[in-house]
Write a structure and sequence with these properties.
The protein has 411 residues and is α/β, with parallel strands linked by helices. Helices cover 27% and strands 20% of the residues. The chain folds into two domains: 245 residues, Aldolase class I (TIM Barrel), CATH 3.20.20.70; 83 residues, Beta Barrel (Elongation Factor Tu (Ef-tu), domain 3), CATH 2.40.30.
Length: 411
């Protein structure tokens, strides 16, 4: 049994570093153009260079998404971008458009190509087609069952990557026209406005202006609102099939989400690889609780066992025991015995706080005092990205996450 590659999202340079430190084998990211997450922050070429060096120093990989469906005007800029990626020594390109694939062979020869899930690869003939075009790996469509994955694996000699966690799309593997139709922002060019999360009502053609709730719920209906994918319990079966890579969705999610998913799936993969018998119900329950703490919607196993009755979160169900992302550890100041925290959410005394460390260790934190950088006493850390000082242990390393468990106290 091979150890699969755990691939995490890197919506910006900070998330790239967190993903790697918390357990990812590789990260996928986008530049300022040609990527399917135009609002993720993304990385400039200089930031890519820094991120690639950070990854390579730790023997990790970086994959760059060039996975829009290109129009003619895009083709004029893509060759130069591909040449720059080759100079940066990226580890792979993620591509969905056949035209971009052809350009990649010309302007970035030698860089391995992964076929994006946007290409909707759902059968072994399609997989063989992309293999014959020179692709090294395919990200399979999310709509496949385990049996279908296994048949593709058996019949086609090509690496397979499978989404194991994150947001699902109401459209087939993300090929959605709703966003462009309703807002002018094309999902297939990276600018999705997520209209599947909007609230909808039913209107009968002979009663214009009269709206009826599809579900009996005072908040309206969310019939298009898909649940989030979570295949934690399927990790053993996917590893037994020798799937080469497990992918987590979420370039627009928080650093806390990146840290949590990287840490939990790292533990799950390593646990099953090293000692299969310890992959038991107790551990699964604990890991699942951790994943639920950063989830935005209820979990589903998607199509892995066939058509699921629990794909849509029609009631927009609330989630319990959510964790709030409060800050990131930037440094330990030995002269004061304090940790320097970059604030991301209002926190202070009375909050149930803890540090989430690379490797998954959790350290509880009782906050009695908070200081600014001039050691002036503060009642709370209130300002976005404010640098504050907290008394804390030196063992909490840089890029550890400060989070709050449970609801914030009113003040």
């Amino acid at each position: 049994m091979k150890l699969p590659e755990l691939v995490l999202p890197a919506g910006n340079l900070e998330k790239l570093k967190i993903a790697i430190l918390f357990g990812a084998d590789a990260v996928y990211l986008g530049g300022k153009d040609f990527s399917l997450r135009a609002y993720a922050g993304n990385l400039s070429l200089d930031e890519m260079s820094e991120g690639i060096d950070f990854a390579h120093e730790r023997m990790k990989k970086t994959y760059i998404g060039v996975n829009i469906f290109a129009h003619n005007q895009d083709l004029r800029k893509i060759p130069d971008f591909l040449e720059k990626l080759k100079e940066l020594q990226v580890d792979g390109l993620i591509i969905s458009d056949p035209g971009i694939l052809r350009l990649a062979k010309k302007y970035a020869p030698g860089i391995p190509v992964t076929i994006s899930t946007q290409a909707n690869t759902s059968n072994y003939e399609a997989a063989a087609f992309y293999r014959d075009l020179g692709a090294q790996r395919i990200v399979l469509a999310r709509e496949l069952t385990l049996d279908e994955m296994e048949e593709i694996k058996r019949k086609v000699e090509i690496e397979l990557e499978v989404f194991i966690h994150g947001a699902m799309c109401v459209s087939y593997s993300g090929r959605c026209l709703l966003s462009h139709y309703m807002t002018g922002r094309s999902a297939n060019s990276g600018a999705c406005a997520h209209p599947c999360r909007y609230r909808y009502a039913l209107m009968e053609e002979k009663r214009p202006g009269e709206y009826y709730s599809i579900e009996e719920d005072e908040r309206g209906s969310y019939i298009l609102n898909s649940c989030d994918l979570c295949l934690l319990e399927y990790i053993p079966r996917l590893m037994d099939m020798e799937i080469e890579a497990f992918k987590v969705e979420g370039r627009m999610k928080s650093p806390l989400y990146v840290a949590s998913t990287a840490s939990i799936y790292r533990k799950a993969i390593d646990c099953y690889y090293i000692k299969k018998e310890s992959y038991n119900t107790l551990e699964l329950d604990n890991w699942l609780k951790e994943l639920e703490s950063t989830a935005t919607r209820p979990f589903t196993n998607g199509f892995i066992d066939g058509e699921s009755a629990l794909l849509q979160d029609i009631n927009k169900a609330g989630l319990q025991a959510r964790a709030d992302f409060c800050g990131i550890v930037r440094a330990y100041r030995r002269e004061t015995g304090m940790l320097e925290i970059e604030q991301r959410a209002n926190f202070g005394p009375g909050d149930n706080l803890e540090f989430y460390l690379p490797g998954g260790e959790i350290i509880k934190l009782d906050v009695d005092t908070i200081y600014d950088q001039e050691l002036n006493l503060l009642d709370r850390a209130r300002h976005p990205q404010q640098r504050v000082l907290l008394p804390g242990p030196e063992i909490v390393p840089q890029y550890s996450i400060l989070r709050r468990i449970g609801a914030q106290d009113e003040d």
